[in-house]
Predict the structure.
Amino acid sequence: MGSFHWLIVIPYYFFAALAALLLLTVIARLTRARVPANALVLAAVSLSLAVLVAPLLTGWTTLAQYTGRPLLLIVVGSFALAGLDVILQQWLPLPLDKELDAL
């Protein structure tokens, strides 16, 4: 059986998708775009897959470069974006807030 080092991509994908969703939500709030929640989630997942898989497939990065420090930066960034989204939600409500509350 080969090395399991490629498993580091799983937490990267999870937190990158979460951070991308929060970033897209903040952008939608600031631009007052009426974007459905499903479209934001689809865009976030696609963006995170592209950002993680494309550099690996093209040889720009290797699995050895996917270490804990960049992952920690993504996690901290997602918490910062979540806090910013909560603050902006009070002043810039969007229709997608009702969609998310219904879940």
Q: What stands out?
A: The chain has a mean pLDDT of 87. Residues 8 and 67 are 8 Å apart (CA to CA). The chain has one domain: 11-102. The longest helix spans residues 68-91.
